[in-house]
Amino acid sequence: MAMNPEGIDETVAIFFAAFSNVDGPAPVDSLYDICLAEAVIVNATNRSPAIYSLEQFVEPRRALLSSGTLVGFREYEISSETSVHDRIANRISRYEKTWTEDGVRKQGAGMKIISLLLTAEGWKITSVLWQDT
């Protein structure tokens, strides 16, 4: 039986919004609130995966999104499937992203698998696995 599945939508929305610098500085600190401190983030885009701790993932993105290199960056979910089993959940998300880099408008897309755990504080992300396409 699903417990508070609507909290998953909120958590995932905060995750994607954390990278947006369209309306000002990207709120990357929100990632520390919605993820377990021990969360693991894996970029599977290349044959050799890049594996990050939460801090190893967040801090370079904070620097990149505040450097002025990527302007108007926005990543957003375009479709999803969520499977909830009591206090654990998996979300498969298709996403797109847009930004301007060196005056050139760019776009991308990919897939993310986000695993979550229902804690006393609500749904927390335990891991993210993603692949840009």
Task: Write a brief structural summary.
The chain is of the alpha+beta class and 133 residues long. It has helices at 6-17, 30-34, 54-66, and strands at 35-43, 50-53, 70-85, 88-101, 104-119, 122-132.
Word description of this protein:
This protein is of the alpha+beta class and 133 residues long. It has a single domain, classed as Nuclear Transport Factor 2, Chain: A (Roll), CATH 3.10.450.50. 23% of the residues lie in helices and 53% in strands. The protein contains three helices and six strands; from the N terminus they run H-H-E-E-H-E-E-E-E. A hairpin with a 6-residue loop joins strand 1 and strand 2.
Q: What's the CATH topology label?
A: Nuclear Transport Factor 2, Chain: A
Question: Count the strands?
Answer: 6
- Distance linking N and C termini: 34 Å
Strand order of the largest sheet: 2-1-6-5-4-3
List the domain count as a whole number.
Answer: 1
* Mean pLDDT rating: 94
* Count of DSSP H/I helices: 3
- Give the overall silhouette: globular
What string gives the helices and strands in order? Answer: HHEEHEEEE
At the first level of CATH, what is the class? Alpha Beta
Fraction of residues in helices? 10-25%
Biggest sheet architecture: 6 strands, mixed
Rg value: 15 Å
- Could you tell me the strand content as a percent range? over 45%
Uncertain runs with pLDDT below 50, 5 residues or more?
A: none
